[in-house]
Amino acid sequence: MVTPAPATVLLGSLAGWLSRVADPPAPTVCGAPGGPPVTAPRVTLRDGRHLAYCESGVPREQAKFKVVFSHGFTGSREDSVRATQSRVSSKWLAAASRGSLSPRIGPPKPNPIALLCAAMELLCKAPVLSCGARRSAAAAGSSMGPLAGAVGRWIHRAAVKPPPPPRICGTPGGPPVTAPRVRLSDGRHLAYAESGARKEEARYKVVFSHGFTGSRLDDIRASPEVAEELGVYMVGFDRAGYGESDPNPNRSVKSAALDVEELADALGLGPKFYVIGISLGCHAVWGALKYIPERIAGAAMMAPVVNHWWPSFPADLAAEVYNKQEVGDQWALRVSHHAPGILHWWMDQSWLPTSTVVAGTTPLPNKRDANIRNMIKADGTFEKKKELATQQGIHESYYRDMMVMFGKWEFDPMSLPKPPCPVHIWQGDEDGLVPVVLQRYIASKLSWVNYHELSETGHFLSPVPGLGDTVLRTLFSQS
After folding, report:
1. What does pTM read for this prediction?
2. How many CB atoms lie within 10 A of CB 193?
3. Confidence of residue 154 (pLDDT cuts 50, 70, 90)
């Protein structure tokens, strides 16, 4: 994979930044104030430094062979090759440890440029080497992915400040609690919003998982008439860290599924209920099919976001699709997967390539999608939704979403066994955010998924006229 020109500039910029902030502490020089005492003989070099040495063997003046010995890592002048004294015919002059510098010579500068350039190159190559279950022969057995993650953690510890703590709703200095909430077993709260038929009278009870940048107020926009006709009760909730739901620093695909289950139980939805997810919120639906399949009466996913590192994806296909994204989105996903500890810092740097999805600038091939986004940005809806979603902090909402969705999953969705309920996926063929070719591959691998591809349709499926009604009728028709 060839590093794009913007990324090349990035390497030098980031390396230069690190060279200014990552200096090690100055050495305590022997013989200098505050340094260790000088106890060994030393020679002064022409640059002013001193080397301490230790002699052994026959007297120097009588020696036939004269040898200089260079010790190893963690060694010192006292080391030698341990030849027996009876056979020694040489003069040993062991070099001093490399830290014995003259006080008038400044401490050596580290070389973070080489380190960081190597680190960024690793991150740049990591998607090609790590996407999919198969690897190229050259990359077989490669440790690029883990190494890139290790370097990211090093940068995190060395130079990156932690994100600011979240402003918890209902606490001093935090946003007010305005929505009904349930208390979970770990003490967190989930805020929710109900719609449709009265819960006590409903035939079908649905938990809705909103997408990236969304909230409990989102839904699939089914008509009130159809919801009443079918008897549908729907509850949307702010996923952990969004809106008025408490953050979960340990959030995962599994915790998202268990939040859905606890919400359903707290609201008394019964032993089985339906789940509908949209966009990135569909990770909670995949999690439900993995961890609580016996509780699910039916599942629907609308334009579900995919993870390029799911093992079942062919490496070539995943890499090809990945590389078609905007450079900023490639880097955002790359950091989310390989170095999540620095994601909050990365996304906060205006000079780095970052997510166009967060910025709302992703090229959208579908005309309806483009018009909708232009409209909500023009009337202020885009910013209002962001303010609501991130009011407790962008790290525990948007960025935690990215780390969970594009991080290392506990399972591969394409390896799930057939669940005891119908499962549907709706996908637009002009989706500019979720590659349709990967969705088709998922459907081809999972024979039990009912796949519905929508012609001339993009990513924003809720506004598609009549689709919300179709989703409900289709989902319940198989129940």
Report:
1. 0.74
2. 18
3. low
